C-alpha cells in the first residue's frame, strides 16, 4: 500500500516545482517590461532624473507579514504620479501606504555610485529588494504616531549591481497635509558625486542669506536708535521699519528652503508673502517722506488699502481656508506702487538735492530684484539656478538700505561740513576784503608784463616759422623743377629710339613699341604738369595773349575726344550761344584747362552724356564768359567736394578705385584759371552728376585768318574684352588666371606668358573671383588696386574657399612698403611683386610657385600620407580631406558610388572636384574613392573583423577576386597576408 502511493506523490511534487518555475519566469518577464530604465544619458545638466510620473504600484495601509522582505508588487494598484494632493490622492489613501517602483540600470550605471533623493512633507522608509536603505522622519499610523521631516537636499547613496529589475519600495505616511496639494512625494535618481557637488554649491550660496539678513537687521536697529535720539527726523523710523522687514523676510526665505520641519516651512512661506506686501508699503512711504514735507493723504490711503487687501488675503489663504495659492496679480500692484515711489525719488533728484541719485539707484535696483529674482516674473532662472537666484535676491535687497544709509550719512556729514565752512567764511571775510585791493593792483601789473612777454615771444616764433616755411617751399620748388627736368633726358632717349624702331618693327614688337611710346608720352605729360605747377607757385609763369576763336578751340578738343566717347558709349555734346567767339587769351593755358576737365569727365563717366556749354555772362559788369562741363558719371561725395582742387588730392584713394590719377590735373587747372583772372567751381551729387563751371573775364578781339590746323589724333588703345575662354598654349601646361584692370599691362603680361602657360584673363577683382571658382586654375596673378574688389579681397576670398584654397596667388602692386606687403601676406598671398617689375622676375616667381605645388602633389600622389596624416596641410585643406573621407566612408558598402556622387555630396561640380583634388594631392576622384576603400579594408583585416570575402563586400567591391587584385596592386601583398599576420 505504501509503495503504491510513492509514485503519485513524487509526480505531484515535480509538477508543482515546474509550475512555480514557469510562473516565476512569467513574473520576471512582466516585471522587466514594467521596470523604469535608469540611463546616465537621461540625467541631463542637473545630474538626476525624476521618477514621480513613472509606473508606480500602491498598497494602502500596512502589508501583511514581514514588511521589510517585500519583493513583489502583485495585487497592488497602479499609480502614475506620486505628487498628489487631497483631490487626486490614490484610491483608499488614508494617510499611510506602500509605494513600489521597479527600476533597472543600464550597463553604464552598474556598480556606479548613485543617489536617491525624496522630497515630502511626511515620513518615509525606503527599501531596495526588501532591504532598508534609508528614510526620513518616523512613519506612523496616525498624526500622533508619526514625525514629519523634510529632506529635499539630502542624498541616499545607491548601487545597482546588475541590469536586472530591482524593486524600490517606500513605506510612507502623511497625516498632517501642511500643503493640501502636496500629500505625496517626489523621487529622483542620479549621479551621486556630481549632484553632491551641486547641492554643496547651492547650500554654500544659501548660507549667505542669514548674513544678509543679519546686516539688514543691524542697520534697522541702528536707525531705530537714531530715531529715538532724534525723533524729529522721522525718516529714520520709516527706514528702520523698511530694513527690519527686509531682514525678517530674508530669514523666512532661508527657513523656507532649508528647514526640516514642514510646519515651519509653511509659517516661513506665509511670512514671505506677508513681508512682500509690508515691504512695498514701507518702501513707498519712506520715499514719500523723503520727497514731501507733508505727504498727501490720498497717496497714503491708497497705498494702505492695497497693502491691507493683500495682507488680509494672505492670512485667509494660509490660516483660515488653507487653500491653494491663487494668482493675485501682486506684481502689477507692486510695479504701480514702486513706480510711484520711484517718481518721488525722481522729484528729489530733479530738485538738485545732492547725492539723491543714490536713492534712485536703490529704488531701481529693488524693483529689478523683485521682478528678476524674488518673483522671477520673466522666468530668467532655470531649475538648477535657484540657489543663485536666492543669493542675488538677498544681495540685491541690501542695495536700497545701503544707498539710503550712505545718503543719510552723506547728508549728515554735509550739514556739519556746511556749518564749518560758513564759520570759516565769516572769519576770513574781513581779512580777504583788506587784501583784495592790494592783490588786484599787483595782479593787473603782473598780467600786463606777462602778456607783453608772450606777445614778443610769439612774434619771434612766428617770424622764425615763416622763414623756415619759405625756405622749405623754395627748396621744394627747386626740387620739383630739377627732378622733372632730369626726367626729360631719359624720356627723350626712350621715346626717340622707340619711334625710329617703330618704322621697321612688325607683329608683337611693333605693338610693344607703341605701348612704350604711349606710356612715355603719358609720363611726359605728368612731368609738364609738375613743371607748370612749380612755375605758377614761384610766380614765373606769364600770360601770352593772342586772338583765339574760343568756340572753334572747344569744338576742336571735343572732336578729339569723340572717338573715345563712342568707344565707351557716351554721348558728347557741345553748345554755344554764338557761332564765332574771338577773344584775347593764352591759347596754351586754355588748351590745358579744357583738356584736363574733358579728360576727367570721360575718365569718371561709364555711360550717359557729357554736355559742354559756352555762353556770355550778361549779369557780370565786365566782359565775362561762362564755360560749364556737366557729366552723368559717378559723382563726388559731398564731404570730399571742397578738396578736389587741392594738389595731389584724390577723392577715392582706396585700392578699389576704378580710375588711376595723381591729383595734379585739377590743381593745375585751378591755378591756370585764377592766373588768367577767372574762377572755377564744382557741384556734384554722388551717383548722379558732376558739373565744373569756369567764369573768366576776356577782351574781345578781331577775327584773324588762320591756316587750317591739321588735327592729329593719337592712336587710341582698344582694350581687349575680357573673356573666360582658355587660351591654349599646351593642353598639359598649367592654367593661370590673370586679373588686371589696366588693359595695356594686362595685354603685356598676356603676351609674356602666352607661349608658356594657358591663360584666362579678367578686367577686375569681382570677375576674377568668378573665373577662379569656375576654372580652378593652377596659379592666380592679380593687381592690387582694381574697381569694386581689390587684390587683397581676391586673395582672401580664393584662399578662404575650399575649392581654391590650394592655389598660389601673386599680387602685383605699385605699393612696395612693408605694411602693404604684410597685409598681402596676411590675406594668404604666396608672392608679392612691386611695380615696375622685371618680366624675368615674374616668370621665375610663377615657375617657383608652380614647382613647389607640383612637388607637394607628387609627394601625396605616391603615398597615402594625405589619408593617414593631414596635419601638415593647412586647416581648410584638412577639413576638405576630412569631408571627402567622411563622404566616401558613409557610402563604403555601395559598389556604384562614383565620382559624380562624391562631387554632389561635396557641393561641387565633377570638374571642380577633379581639378581641386589633382591640384591638391595629384589624384582623381575615382582613384581617391578606391584608396579610401582599400585603406579601410586593410584596417578591418588587421583588426580581424571579418574574412577577406566579407570585407570585400563591406567596402563596396563587386567580388572578392577584384578586391584581392586591387588590394595586391595597392599594398604589394595579398589581403590574406594581413589576416595571417
TrEMBL record:
The keyword Transmembrane applies. Keywords: DNA-binding, Kinase, Membrane, Phosphoprotein, Signal, Transcription, Transcription regulation, Transferase, Transmembrane, Transmembrane helix. It is an enzyme of class 2 (transferase). Its EC number is 2.7.13.3. The modification 4-aspartylphosphate is found at residue 783. Residues 482-700 form the Histidine kinase domain. Coiled coil: none annotated. GO terms for molecular function: DNA-binding transcription factor activity; phosphorelay sensor kinase activity; sequence-specific DNA binding. Residues 735-850 form the Response regulatory domain. It catalyses: ATP + protein L-histidine = ADP + protein N-phospho-L-histidine. Residues 1-29 form the signal peptide. Residues 882-981 form the HTH araC/xylS-type domain. The chain crosses the membrane at residues 208-230, 237-258, 270-290, 302-323, 329-349, 356-374, 390-410. This is histidine kinase. PANTHER family: HYBRID SIGNAL TRANSDUCTION HISTIDINE KINASE C, TWO-COMPONENT HISTIDINE KINASE.
Amino acid at each position: 500500500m505504501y509503495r503504491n502511493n510513492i509514485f503519485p506523490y513524487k509526480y505531484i511534487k515535480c509538477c508543482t516545482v515546474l509550475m512555480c518555475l514557469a510562473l516565476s519566469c512569467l513574473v520576471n518577464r512582466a516585471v522587466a517590461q514594467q521596470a523604469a530604465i535608469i540611463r546616465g544619458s537621461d540625467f541631463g545638466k542637473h545630474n538626476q532624473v525624476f521618477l514621480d510620473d513613472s509606473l508606480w504600484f500602491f498598497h494602502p495601509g500596512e502589508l501583511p507579514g514581514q514588511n521589510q522582505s517585500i519583493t513583489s508588487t502583485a495585487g497592488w494598484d497602479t499609480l502614475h504620479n506620486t505628487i498628489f494632493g487631497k483631490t487626486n490622492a490614490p484610491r483608499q489613501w488614508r494617510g499611510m501606504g506602500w509605494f513600489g517602483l521597479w527600476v533597472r540600470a543600464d550597463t553604464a550605471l552598474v556598480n556606479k555610485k548613485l543617489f536617491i533623493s525624496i522630497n515630502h512633507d511626511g515620513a518615509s522608509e525606503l527599501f531596495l529588494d526588501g532591504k532598508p536603505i534609508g528614510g526620513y522622519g518616523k512613519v506612523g499610523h496616525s498624526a500622533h504616531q508619526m514625525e514629519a521631516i523634510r529632506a529635499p537636499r539630502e542624498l541616499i547613496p545607491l548601487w545597482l549591481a546588475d541590469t536586472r529589475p530591482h524593486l524600490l519600495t517606500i513605506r510612507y505616511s502623511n497625516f498632517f497635509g501642511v500643503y493640501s496639494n502636496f500629500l505625496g512625494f517626489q523621487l529622483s535618481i542620479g549621479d551621486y558625486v556630481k549632484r553632491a557637488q551641486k547641492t554643496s554649491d547651492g547650500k554654500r550660496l544659501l548660507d549667505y542669506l542669514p548674513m544678509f539678513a543679519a546686516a539688514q537687521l543691524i542697520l534697522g536697529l541702528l536707525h531705530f536708535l537714531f530715531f529715538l535720539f532724534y525723533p524729529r527726523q522721522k525718516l529714520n523710523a520709516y527706514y528702520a521699519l523698511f530694513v527690519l522687514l527686509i531682514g525678517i523676510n530674508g530669514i523666512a526665505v532661508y527657513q523656507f528652503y532649508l528647514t526640516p520641519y514642514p510646519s515651519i516651512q509653511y509659517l516661513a512661506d506665509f511670512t514671505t508673502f506677508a513681508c512682500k506686501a509690508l515691504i512695498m508699503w514701507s518702501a513707498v512711504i519712506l520715499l514719500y517722506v523723503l520727497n514731501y514735507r507733508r505727504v498727501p493723504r490720498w497717496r497714503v490711503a491708497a497705498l494702505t488699502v492695497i497693502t491691507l487687501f493683500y495682507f488680509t488675503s494672505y492670512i485667509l489663504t494660509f490660516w483660515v481656508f488653507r487653500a491653494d495659492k491663487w494668482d493675485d496679480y501682486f506684481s502689477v500692484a507692486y510695479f504701480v506702487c514702486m513706480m510711484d515711489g520711484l517718481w518721488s525719488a525722481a522729484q528729489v533728484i530733479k530738485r538738485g538735492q545732492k547725492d539723491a541719485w543714490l536713492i534712485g539707484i536703490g529704488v531701481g535696483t529693488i524693483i529689478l530684484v523683485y521682478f528678476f529674482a524674488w518673483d522671477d516674473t520673466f522666468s530668467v532662472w532655470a531649475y538648477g539656478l535657484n540657489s543663485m537666484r536666492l543669493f542675488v535676491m538677498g544681495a540685491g535687497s541690501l542695495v536700497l538700505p545701503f544707498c539710503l544709509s550712505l545718503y543719510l550719512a552723506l547728508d549728515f556729514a554735509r550739514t556739519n561740513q556746511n556749518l564749518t565752512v560758513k564759520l570759516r567764511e565769516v572769519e576770513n571775510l574781513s581779512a580777504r576784503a583788506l587784501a583784495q585791493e592790494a592783490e588786484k593792483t599787483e595782479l593787473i601789473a603782473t598780467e600786463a608784463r606777462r602778456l607783453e612777454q608772450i606777445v614778443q615771444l610769439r612774434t619771434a616764433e612766428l617770424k622764425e616759422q615763416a622763414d623756415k616755411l619759405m625756405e622749405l617751399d623754395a627748396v621744394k620748388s627747386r626740387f620739383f623743377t630739377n627732378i622733372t627736368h632730369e626726367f626729360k633726358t631719359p624720356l627723350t632717349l626712350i621715346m626717340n629710339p622707340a619711334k625710329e624702331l617703330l618704322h621697321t618693327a612688325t607683329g608683337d614688337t611693333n605693338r610693344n613699341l607703341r605701348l612704350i611710346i604711349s606710356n612715355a608720352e603719358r609720363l611726359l605729360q605728368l612731368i609738364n604738369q609738375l613743371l607748370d605747377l612749380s612755375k605758377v607757385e614761384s610766380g614765373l609763369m606769364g600770360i601770352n595773349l593772342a586772338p583765339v576763336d574760343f568756340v572753334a578751340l572747344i569744338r576742336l578738343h571735343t572732336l578729339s575726344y569723340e572717338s573715345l566717347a563712342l568707344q565707351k558709349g557716351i554721348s558728347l555734346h557741345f553748345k554755344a550761344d554764338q557761332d564765332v567767339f574771338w577773344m584775347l587769351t593764352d591759347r596754351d593755358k586754355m588748351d590745358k584747362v579744357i583738356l584736363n576737365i574733358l579728360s576727367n569727365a570721360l575718365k569718371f563717366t561709364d555711360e550717359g552724356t557729357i554736355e559742354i556749354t559756352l555762353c556770355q555772362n550778361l549779369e557780370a559788369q565786365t566782359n565775362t564768359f561762362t564755360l560749364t562741363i556737366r557729366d552723368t558719371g559717378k559723382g563726388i561725395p559731398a564731404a570730399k567736394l571742397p578738396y578736389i582742387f587741392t594738389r595731389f588730392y584724390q577723392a577715392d584713394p582706396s585700392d578699389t578705385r576704378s580710375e588711376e590719377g595723381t591729383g595734379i590735373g585739377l590743381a593745375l587747372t585751378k591755378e591756370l584759371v585764377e592766373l588768367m583772372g577767372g574762377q572755377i567751381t564744382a557741384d556734384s551729387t554722388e551717383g548722379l552728376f558732376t558739373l565744373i563751371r569756369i567764369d573768366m573775364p576776356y577782351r574781345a578781339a578781331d577775327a584773324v585768318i588762320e591756316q587750317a590746323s591739321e588735327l592729329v589724333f593719337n592712336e587710341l588703345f582698344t582694350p581687349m574684352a575680357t573673356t573666360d575662354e582658355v587660351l591654349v598654349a599646351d593642353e598639359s601646361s598649367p592654367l593661370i588666371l590673370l586679373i588686371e584692370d589696366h588693359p595695356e599691362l594686362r595685354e603685356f603680361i598676356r603676351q609674356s606668358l602666352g607661349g608658356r602657360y594657358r591663360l584666362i584673363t579678367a578686367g577686375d577683382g569681382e570677375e576674377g573671383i568668378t573665373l577662379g571658382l569656375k576654372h580652378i586654375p593652377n596659379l592666380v596673378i592679380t593687381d592690387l588696386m582694381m574697381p569694386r574688389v581689390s587684390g587683397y579681397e581676391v586673395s582672401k576670398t580664393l584662399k578662404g574657399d575650399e575649392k581654391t584654397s590650394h592655389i598660389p596667388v601673386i599680387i602685383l602692386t605699385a605699393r612696395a612698403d612693408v605694411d602693404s606687403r604684410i597685409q598681402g601676406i596676411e590675406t594668404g598671398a604666396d608672392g608679392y611683386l612691386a611695380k615696375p617689375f622685371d618680366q624675368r622676375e615674374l616668370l621665375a616667381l610663377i615657375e617657383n610657385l608652380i614647382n613647389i605645388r607640383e612637388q607637394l602633389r607628387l609627394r601625396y600622389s605616391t603615398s597615402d600620407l594625405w589619408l593617414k596624416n593631414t596635419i601638415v596641410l593647412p586647416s581648410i585643406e584638412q577639413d576638405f580631406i576630412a569631408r571627402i573621407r567622411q563622404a566616401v566612408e558613409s557610402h563604403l558598402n555601395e559598389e556604384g558610388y562614383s565620382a559624380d556622387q562624391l562631387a554632389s555630396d561635396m557641393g561641387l561640380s565633377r570638374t571642380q572636384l577633379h581639378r581641386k583634388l589633382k591640384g591638391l594631392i595629384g589624384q582623381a576622384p575615382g582613384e581617391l574613392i578606391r584608396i579610401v576603400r582599400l585603406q579601410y579594408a586593410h584596417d578591418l583585416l588587421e583588426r580581424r573583423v571579418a574574412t577577406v570575402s566579407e570585407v570585400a563586400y563591406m567596402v563596396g567591391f563587386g567580388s572578392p577576386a577584384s578586391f584581392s587584385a586591387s588590394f595586391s596592386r595597392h599594398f604589394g601583398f595579398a589581403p590574406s597576408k594581413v589576416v595571417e599576420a
